[in-house]
Automatic annotation (TrEMBL):
One GO location term (cellular component): plasma membrane
One Pfam match: Hemerythrin
Assigned keywords, A-Z: Coiled coil
Coiled coil feature spans: 89-132
Alphabetized SUPFAM superfamilies for the sequence: PYP-like sensor domain (PAS domain)
PROSITE patterns listed in its UniProt record: PAC
UniProt keyword Coiled coil, yes or no: yes
Segments forming domain PAC: 333-392
Protein name, as recorded: PAC domain-containing protein
Length: 396
């Protein structure tokens, strides 16, 4: 669906006027013809243009619903091809329908006007809404990346992501209110009103803007790939779609030469040999890999290594890398990993007034065959002191 560049530019000016708090009636009358013809994709482009002007998503949120309300007449009559049954988008739409049913049930309880006796039931139902976060995560981590790769205008999805975060914050606050022994009915009414406004608003924006736009720019193969990726998440309030044989990701890992570099390509991305080394050495842990023949094959060189390692250890039998009194522990771990009885082993020790966490993980190939052990050592002294939350950047 091609967008009308002239209309987009004019309505970009309309939204700019709303942000500047110009008279609403005068603005509407000035842009009425365009307002009654705006399409879902044009809506994205209009808001994306505001971001390009330097307007922050938080500022746009303040006028978002007012503008979309004005777009409503055009958006609800817009005709678009609906997704196939069982597809990724079909599941998202069904989740929205199920969410609306949950919200309707909550509203029915509120109508009884008996907050004290219904408080526990409300808490249970409100807590259940936390499951819907998987719906937002699938949008953020699967749908949004595909759209952003299509067109620059889909940078405007950051506005919808900000709405997800508002929903999460409101839900968290509501649960806190309901769990409080001095829960205020007034506080509850204010926050439940806020949450319902956000959730119903998101359903509307998905139904009339996001989903129609996505159907017009994403091809069948991409929808299919998204469906396969979605099985790593939950399907809130609907039956989990059955996994067909073709829905399972197949390993396609390979190393290719690009110019003068070797590049490892996998289904989760690609990195060069040099980038892989930088990643390994940037991790705040010591990594040592021992292969299925008990030979040391690789270790990392982080900035502050906990246990000394030297290249002379490469090819050495791992049993010869430990003091005699602890060799039996190493042999036991390897034996249990090789037999498939265990997948990990964890220890922690005190060393020079620091707490060191030492973990061993069984390495297996795609067919489940034992391929060795990964030793991971980490200084967790400071981690143990962490309490509460830290959401702001504070350089030490």
């Amino acid at each position: 669906m091609e967008t009308n560049a002239g209309r987009v530019e004019r309505l970009t000016q309309y939204v700019k006027g709303v942000l500047e708090k110009r008279d609403g009636t005068m603005l509407y009358n000035e842009y009425k013809e365009d307002l009654e013809k705006v399409t879902p994709q044009e809506a994205f482009e209009i808001f994306s243009n505001q971001i390009q002007r330097g307007i922050k998503p938080k500022e746009i949120l303040e006028i978002l619903d007012k503008v979309i309300h004005v777009f409503n007449k055009s958006l609800i009559k817009y005709q678009w091809k609906k997704p196939e049954k069982g597809s990724f988008l079909d599941a998202l739409m069904k989740e929205n329908e199920a969410l609306e049913e949950k919200l309707s049930a909550i509203k029915e309880i509120i109508k009884k006007k008996d907050f004290k006796n219904n408080k526990d039931d409300l808490l249970k139902r409100i807590e259940e809404l936390q499951q819907f976060d998987d719906h937002y995560l699938k949008k953020e981590n699967i749908l949004f990346p595909y759209l952003e790769k299509k067109m620059k205008k889909f940078e405007g999805l950051s506005i919808m992501w900000a709405l997800h975060d508002e929903a999460r914050a409101s839900l968290k606050k509501l649960i806190y209110i309901l769990k409080s022994e001095e829960a205020s009915e007034t506080d509850f009414n204010v926050e439940i009103g806020n949450l319902l406004f956000i959730l119903y608003g998101l359903v509307y924006k998905e139904k009339y803007i996001l989903f129609p736009s996505a159907m017009e720019v994403i091809d069948d193969k991409e929808w299919y790939d998204m469906k396969k990726q979605s099985y790593e998440y939950g399907f809130p309030f609907i039956e989990r779609p059955p996994i067909e044989k073709d829905d399972i990701w197949e390993e396609e890992d390979k190393v290719v030469k690009q110019g003068q570099e070797l590049v490892m390509k996998t289904e989760t991305g690609e990195i060069s040999f040099q980038q892989a080394l930088m990643i390994f050495n940037a991790l705040p842990v010591d990594l040592t890999y021992v292969d299925e023949n008990n030979k040391v094959r690789f270790f990392t060189r982080p900035k502050d290594r906990i246990f000394p390692r030297s290249p002379a250890a490469i090819g050495r039998d791992v049993r010869n890398c430990h003091p005699p009194q602890s060799v039996h522990v190493v042999e036991n771990i390897i034996d249990e990993f090789r037999k498939g009885h265990k997948d990990s082993a964890t220890f922690w020790i005190q060393m020079k007034e620091r707490t060191i966490l030492i973990q061993y993980f069984a390495m297996k190939d795609s067919e489940g065959q034992y391929k060795g052990v990964l030793e991971v050592s980490q200084d967790i002294t400071e981690i143990k002191k962490i309490e509460g939350e830290k959401r702001l950047l504070e350089w030490q």
